[in-house]
């Protein structure tokens, strides 16, 4: 089937509407048997793969590749929404997803849609977690909401950033090396992984294990109203 073989939709339909309609046709009776059998869980591997391909396209600076890979990620979102629209107990579609996201972004930008005065990007960054906390008052820790399945290096950056934002870790608490650019940082990280590999060690697992201990210490500090983990000697960073 080519694009010309797809039954025409409403004349006023946008390109996004057409994509939503194509996904619905693929998953409907008489459509694609493979598409019809997929679940949210079975699609996770493709979402992960497409996300990494988009990252690669962004970092390569290729306009055409980024256009293609953004489309692949968008397709995953539309596919999941169509699945939900036809799954008992979920019952939402792409329009509900968009409406939820619109409401979230409006709520998180009171400096644009309300009367909060934030002038610089740094001002927004400092207030961002407060905006998010207002949405989810049930969260009791700065660590709540961090996906533990993130790659260990990205998880470390996220955990340390959260701790710094609330004063549990001073921004000066860092490994005492003269690192001033990513050009310097990259080879250093590569050397660490290389050294670990030569000793039969798993760098990803080692960092993830250290992060579990760090997160336990952060939660303990929160529960005792500690204000500076670095000063208290809690975080096991070289100093």
Automatic annotation (TrEMBL):
Q: Where is the NTP pyrophosphohydrolase MazG-like domain?
A: 38-113
CDD domains tied to this protein: NTP-PPase_MazG_Nterm
A biological process (GO) of this protein is: dGTP catabolic process
Which Pfam families does this one have? MazG (PF03819)
Q: Which domain of life is it from?
A: Bacteria
InterPro entries per record:
MazG-like_dom, NTP-PPase_MazG-like_N, NTP_PyrPHydrolase_MazG
Gene3D superfamilies associated with the record: MazG-like
This one is known as MazG family protein
Q: Which GO terms describe its molecular function?
A: nucleoside triphosphate diphosphatase activity
Q: Which NCBIfam families match?
A: mazG
Taxonomic path: Bacteria, Bacillati, Actinomycetota, Actinomycetes, Micrococcales
